[in-house]
């Protein structure tokens, strides 16, 4: 099946053409990072307007790069949620317009579901597995028993890990988005220079909390402003990143033990972080488990990842136009919705 996939959940306007839910024929992403950098974060209204300006061009480019036309598409897949409601509406309305105008079946896909299945575009991972989805808006642990079969094991109770990276970057005077800059500087610093807290690491749950860690960095900078200097900033970055990665790795290890799974998928934008990749590889060696990371282009927001669940639902006829964009859409509800279908 040849699918046109459309993603506009936050600040990337993306489209892709995917064959049979596994082969990416094209993947086009128009980023808004430079625009939002001026404000130190994503401005929802601006993001929505930029999606409106870019969506037609991005879809056309994806079709052209794949050597296809809209008439060749056997299905359309779009991100319904979660995300910024104004941004989501641009993608949903575009997808519905194409589906109605061309008579092509349409599937709505969960953004987080697409992230945790993106690895299947590059390599097969047997079910079940544990998935850690870690990004600017989400830090969740799931047990994945199959496409459409998800159980939430834990989630952040305040800031997501990627959000914490960006907010801490702002405290350090680092340009937005802070995560990539902190990762680069951390490679030059001493991760044990400062002893930051590891929130909820040993509380017995699989939940996360990064708000207190952000506050700890702010307090340290107030007491020791010299750490904002070029000489000491790498140590500050390395110490902060080490704390985040230790929490993420510790919780993932606990999730593997509780579920009995021996496979872990790490997905989302923060999965590009070199410190996290190194920590997870160490976990794999220590625990004798397998850890999988999508390539960086599939960790960041993209439309190609929609092709995996999109193909699955299209094949089963789970299509239609009777849906709205939703800012919140827990993955657990997808399993329930599929179980109650006639």
List keywords for this structure.
Nucleotidyltransferase, domain 5; five-stranded mixed β-sheet; 12 helices; alpha/beta; 342 residues; 10 strands; 43% helix
Describe the structure.
The protein has 342 residues and is of the alpha/beta class. The chain folds into two domains: 2-117 and 299-339, Nucleotidyltransferase, domain 5 (2-Layer Sandwich), CATH 3.30.420; 123-293, Nucleotidyltransferase, domain 5 (2-Layer Sandwich). It has twelve helices and ten strands. The chain has helices at 33-37, 44-65, 85-102, 111-117, 161-172, 178-186, 211-223, 233-259, 274-287, 296-299, 307-315, 332-339, and strands at 2-7, 12-19, 23-31, 75-81, 106-110, 129-134, 139-146, 149-155, 263-267, 290-292. α3 links the parallel β4 (75-81) and β5 (106-110). α5 runs parallel beside α7. The protein starts with a strand and ends with a helix.
